[in-house]
């Protein structure tokens, strides 16, 4: 069974060993079908972009992947490099992060604003530290094994603070950071969970061009490390075209295109739906409208 | 420029202020005229007759007019002026002083707490110290412990629990019943009471913790009431509203007894004059140690993953789940632990009173404990301790308002105004410090420098 979809003109490397396979997912809110019969693959080690106009259902797809919503239909299969597989639609949200190793960020940043940067990154390593503290009992007694584990966690946190350029502010509360730094901290926090799949919801939103370029470097860096595949939602086409290996386009909850960035860029349906129709065409439609209204009111 | 504005502002609007004050007076007349001015009384023939009190209404309306006038002309302008004036930045000396104060406050306080009974005995003698050790010392420390216990739930995990007294009751009745029926010792029953209370905490927690915010508060409140009603109505076990009396005293680790008739009575063994002060002082140190145990465990836990998860939960529950934290279990541990300390305090309370009845576990108690946590600054140990001193010590001190009789005449009962004064004081404190006495948060870990976190960034939890 091959899940190759429409166009066969180019190879589709992401179908060979996908980290995430989304199959026929539907998400319905009462009468509203936010996502309908959506299938796509996220290749291992790739940066996959999920794009689409406002309200297309991108965040809803993320919420289905990370367990915050249960899809009304369909299957979400996650496969680790080591071979373990997880059916995400059957797992509660916190286990998807803890066991299936899917980390995420939020469109409206959700940091622990009253805790320091370092604390934010330590909370992200909760499960590992919880085990090391013997479910708290050894920790209360002050056992050295826990001390060691905590030191390691702080090293991991320092590594990601360094990667995101936030080391100097490690002891400041997260709520005090400027917007762009908060976005980076949220990525660092997600990375501290040691994810196989990192889902970023509009990471470049609200960033200035320099910050946006830094973000690209960070994401390429994470890909370089090889352990984590990235799925990101993005509106900024320059970011998408520059760093992604594979683009999936949604409109009104339905997939309208799926391929390499250059394929998607030239897909007429994407141009019409996402990038909008050409200026000339708009003018044509406006002229027609004018004629119509003039005809109606003599 | 600025001075011109501040003088001309109120000066120019005296007429407006007067008009405003008279309007307030009319409103007051409308409200208090019928409410206060007319009073129905039964006369000798058992008929209702209306008596009028226009003099009283006139006094009230006068107060309202004068007060409103004063507010608009002087108090509000002064307040806005204060707000507008930039606070001068703290000088280096002030900062250093504050840091020193913060560093030395806890150790000094601890030393004081340990020598407090000795000081009282030294100055007032054994009999004279009784009131200060028992009514003030022990009473306040019980509430410090309860406040610290509830602080785990409300202050750290951000779960508003309005039925905390239920766990206090479980602890108290556990000791009362098991000690009177089976003659078990306090030292065995203390941990047992804690465990039983924690179990009740988990039992309540399972169904309830999926609720959030107001819903959680209401259900916990109801739970507190249910426990009290069960204690009243389960007569076979709890003896109903009559309560359980002659609960055995705590022994000095089984070596000495404080029972007057016992052969190993503490005073007899040491050849001292009989006095209940020894027992009270012993109880004082016991509750002090129990409270310090609560503080020690809480401070330790804050620096462990569970503690950080509690605080993260208070900040953002959804983010917690996205990081793989089992929020249900995390909430349950907070609930169970808070309940356990409530249970410890309860068993101590039962032993100290020698008598328990459902009367002691009304919603009022829960409200006082929540008020202590909120007033202290949610999450702050020192703040909660200070608030307990202010609230419990304050209400006890207000019992000593007898001097007011000199002002208002013999018929005046100051005890009745205790709660009123107290409520007013609380409102004022919350205006002055809306996030409690100590509102800054201390981070649990740091790379280079420990910096306090301003309360404006710290969330209060949402259930
Ligand atoms: N919990 C919900 N209940 C009801 N409707 C929802 C819910 N979540 C999303 N929707 C609806 O689903 C549709 C898709 O929303 P979604 O947030 O996924 O869009 P999006 O592609 O992320 O848009 P944006 O680019 O603006 O972030 C919208 O019409 C939205 O109103
Ligand atoms: Mg979205």
TrEMBL record, chain A:
<keyword id="KW-0547">Nucleotide-binding</keyword>
<dbReference type="InterPro" id="IPR003439">
    <property type="entry name" value="ABC_transporter-like_ATP-bd"/>
</dbReference>
<dbReference type="GO" id="GO:0005304">
    <property type="term" value="F:L-valine transmembrane transporter activity"/>
</dbReference>
<dbReference type="InterPro" id="IPR003593">
    <property type="entry name" value="AAA+_ATPase"/>
</dbReference>
<keyword id="KW-0813">Transport</keyword>
<dbReference type="Pfam" id="PF12399">
    <property type="entry name" value="BCA_ABC_TP_C"/>
</dbReference>
<dbReference type="GO" id="GO:1903806">
    <property type="term" value="P:L-isoleucine import across plasma membrane"/>
</dbReference>
<dbReference type="GO" id="GO:1903805">
    <property type="term" value="P:L-valine import across plasma membrane"/>
</dbReference>
<dbReference type="Pfam" id="PF00005">
    <property type="entry name" value="ABC_tran"/>
</dbReference>
<dbReference type="GO" id="GO:0042941">
    <property type="term" value="P:D-alanine transmembrane transport"/>
</dbReference>
<dbReference type="InterPro" id="IPR051120">
    <property type="entry name" value="ABC_AA/LPS_Transport"/>
</dbReference>
<comment type="similarity">
    <text>Belongs to the ABC transporter superfamily.</text>
</comment>
<dbReference type="GO" id="GO:0005886">
    <property type="term" value="C:plasma membrane"/>
</dbReference>
<dbReference type="GO" id="GO:0016887">
    <property type="term" value="F:ATP hydrolysis activity"/>
</dbReference>
<dbReference type="GO" id="GO:0005524">
    <property type="term" value="F:ATP binding"/>
</dbReference>
<dbReference type="InterPro" id="IPR032823">
    <property type="entry name" value="BCA_ABC_TP_C"/>
</dbReference>
<feature type="domain" description="ABC transporter">
    <location>
        <begin position="20"/>
        <end position="277"/>
    </location>
</feature>
<dbReference type="InterPro" id="IPR027417">
    <property type="entry name" value="P-loop_NTPase"/>
</dbReference>
<keyword id="KW-0029">Amino-acid transport</keyword>
<protein>
    <submittedName>
        <fullName>ABC-type branched-chain amino acid transport system, ATPase component</fullName>
    </submittedName>
</protein>
<dbReference type="GO" id="GO:0015808">
    <property type="term" value="P:L-alanine transport"/>
</dbReference>
<keyword id="KW-0067">ATP-binding</keyword>
UniProtKB/TrEMBL annotation, chain B:
<dbReference type="Pfam" id="PF02653">
    <property type="entry name" value="BPD_transp_2"/>
</dbReference>
<dbReference type="InterPro" id="IPR001851">
    <property type="entry name" value="ABC_transp_permease"/>
</dbReference>
<dbReference type="InterPro" id="IPR043428">
    <property type="entry name" value="LivM-like"/>
</dbReference>
<feature type="transmembrane region" description="Helical">
    <location>
        <begin position="186"/>
        <end position="209"/>
    </location>
</feature>
<feature type="transmembrane region" description="Helical">
    <location>
        <begin position="282"/>
        <end position="301"/>
    </location>
</feature>
<keyword id="KW-1133">Transmembrane helix</keyword>
<feature type="transmembrane region" description="Helical">
    <location>
        <begin position="136"/>
        <end position="156"/>
    </location>
</feature>
<feature type="transmembrane region" description="Helical">
    <location>
        <begin position="215"/>
        <end position="234"/>
    </location>
</feature>
<feature type="transmembrane region" description="Helical">
    <location>
        <begin position="332"/>
        <end position="351"/>
    </location>
</feature>
<feature type="domain" description="High-affinity branched-chain amino acid transport system permease LivHM N-terminal">
    <location>
        <begin position="19"/>
        <end position="116"/>
    </location>
</feature>
<dbReference type="InterPro" id="IPR021807">
    <property type="entry name" value="LivHM_N"/>
</dbReference>
<feature type="transmembrane region" description="Helical">
    <location>
        <begin position="21"/>
        <end position="38"/>
    </location>
</feature>
<protein>
    <submittedName>
        <fullName>Branched-chain amino acid transport system permease protein</fullName>
    </submittedName>
</protein>
<keyword id="KW-0472">Membrane</keyword>
<keyword id="KW-0812">Transmembrane</keyword>
<dbReference type="Pfam" id="PF11862">
    <property type="entry name" value="DUF3382"/>
</dbReference>
<feature type="transmembrane region" description="Helical">
    <location>
        <begin position="162"/>
        <end position="179"/>
    </location>
</feature>
<feature type="transmembrane region" description="Helical">
    <location>
        <begin position="104"/>
        <end position="124"/>
    </location>
</feature>
<keyword id="KW-1003">Cell membrane</keyword>
<dbReference type="GO" id="GO:0015658">
    <property type="term" value="F:branched-chain amino acid transmembrane transporter activity"/>
</dbReference>
<feature type="transmembrane region" description="Helical">
    <location>
        <begin position="363"/>
        <end position="392"/>
    </location>
</feature>
<feature type="transmembrane region" description="Helical">
    <location>
        <begin position="50"/>
        <end position="71"/>
    </location>
</feature>
């Amino acid at each position: 069974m091959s899940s190759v979809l429409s166009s066969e003109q180019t190879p589709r490397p992401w179908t060979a060993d996908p980290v995430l396979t989304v199959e026929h997912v539907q998400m319905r809110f009462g009468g509203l079908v936010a996502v309908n019969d959506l299938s796509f693959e996220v290749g291992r080690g790739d940066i996959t972009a999920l794009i689409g106009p406002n309200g297309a259902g991108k965040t809803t797809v993320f919420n289905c992947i990370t367990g915050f919503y249960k899809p009304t239909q369909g299957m979400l299969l996650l496969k680790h490099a080591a071979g373990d597989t997880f059916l995400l639609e059957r797992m509660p949200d916190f286990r998807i992060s803890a066991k299936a190793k899917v980390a995420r960020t939020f469109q409206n940043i959700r940091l622990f604003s009253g805790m320091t940067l370092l604390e934010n990154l330590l909370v992200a390593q909760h499960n590992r530290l919880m085990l090391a503290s013997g479910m708290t009992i050894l920790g209360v007694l002050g056992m050295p094994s826990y001390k060691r584990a905590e030191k390691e966690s702080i090293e991991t946190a320092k590594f990601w603070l360094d990667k995101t350029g936030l080391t100097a502010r490690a002891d400041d509360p997260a709520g005090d950071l400027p917007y762009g730094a908060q976005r980076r901290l949220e990525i660092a926090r997600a990375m501290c969970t040691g994810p196989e799949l990192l889902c970023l919801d509009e990471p470049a939103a609200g960033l200035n061009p320099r910050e946006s370029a830094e973000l690209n470097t960070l994401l390429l860096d994470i890909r370089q490390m090889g352990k984590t595949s990235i799925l990101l939602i993005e509106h900024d086409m320059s970011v998408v075209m520059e760093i992604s290996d594979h683009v999936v386009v949604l409109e009104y909850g339905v997939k309208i295109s799926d391929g390499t960035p250059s394929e998607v860029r030239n897909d007429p349906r994407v141009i019409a739906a996402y990038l909008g129709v050409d200026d000339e065409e708009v003018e044509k439609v406006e002229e027609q409208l004018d004629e119509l209204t003039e005809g109606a009111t003599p | 420029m600025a001075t011109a504005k501040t003088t001309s502002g109120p000066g120019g609007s005296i007429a407006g202020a007067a008009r405003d004050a008279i309007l307030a007076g009319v409103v007051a007349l409308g409200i208090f005229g019928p409410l206060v001015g007319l009073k129905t009384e039964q006369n000798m023939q058992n008929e209702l007759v209306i008596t009028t009190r226009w003099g009283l209404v006139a006094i009230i309306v006068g107060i309202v007019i004068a007060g409103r006038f004063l507010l608009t002309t002087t108090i509000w302008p002064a307040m806005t002026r204060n707000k507008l004036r930039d606070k001068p930045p703290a000088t280096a000396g002030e900062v250093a002083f504050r840091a020193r104060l913060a560093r030395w406050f806890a150790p000094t306080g601890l030393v004081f707490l340990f020598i407090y009974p000795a000081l009282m005995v030294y100055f007032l003698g054994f009999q004279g110290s009784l009131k200060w050790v028992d009514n003030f010392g022990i009473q306040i420390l019980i509430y410090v412990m309860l406040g610290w216990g509830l602080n785990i739930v409300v202050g750290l995990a951000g779960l508003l629990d309005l039925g905390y007294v239920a766990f206090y009751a479980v602890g108290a009745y556990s000791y009362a019943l098991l000690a009177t029926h089976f003659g078990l010792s306090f030292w065995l029953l203390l941990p047992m009471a804690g465990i039983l209370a924690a179990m009740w905490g988990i039992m309540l927690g399972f169904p309830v913790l999926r609720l959030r915010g107001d819903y959680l508060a209401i259900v916990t409140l109801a739970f507190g009431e249910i426990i009290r009603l069960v204690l009243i109505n389960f007569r076979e076990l709890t003896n109903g509203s009559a309560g359980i009396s002659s609960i055995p005293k705590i022994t000095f680790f089984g070596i000495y007894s404080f029972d007057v008739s016992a052969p190993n009575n503490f005073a007899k063994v040491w050849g001292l004059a009989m006095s209940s002060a020894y027992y009270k002082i012993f109880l004082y140190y016991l509750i002090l140690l129990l409270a310090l145990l609560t503080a020690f465990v809480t401070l330790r836990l804050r620096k462990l993953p569970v503690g950080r998860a509690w605080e993260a939960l208070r900040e953002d529950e959804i983010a917690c789940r996205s990081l793989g934290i089992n929020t249900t279990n995390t909430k349950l541990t907070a609930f169970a632990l808070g309940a356990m300390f409530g249970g410890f305090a309860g068993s101590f309370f039962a032993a100290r009173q020698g008598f328990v009845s459902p009367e002691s576990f009304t919603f009022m108690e829960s409200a006082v404990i929540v008020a202590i946590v909120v007033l202290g600054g949610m999450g702050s140990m020192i703040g909660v301790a200070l608030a307990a001193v202010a609230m419990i010590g304050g209400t006890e001190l207000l019992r000593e308002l007898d001097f007011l009789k000199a002002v208002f005449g013999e018929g005046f009962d100051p005890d009745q105004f205790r709660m009123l004064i107290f409520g007013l004081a609380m409102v004022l404190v919350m205006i002055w410090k809306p996030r409690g006495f100590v509102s800054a948060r201390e981070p649990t870990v740091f790379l280079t420098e420990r910096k306090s976190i301003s309360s404006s960034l710290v969330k209060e939890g949402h259930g």
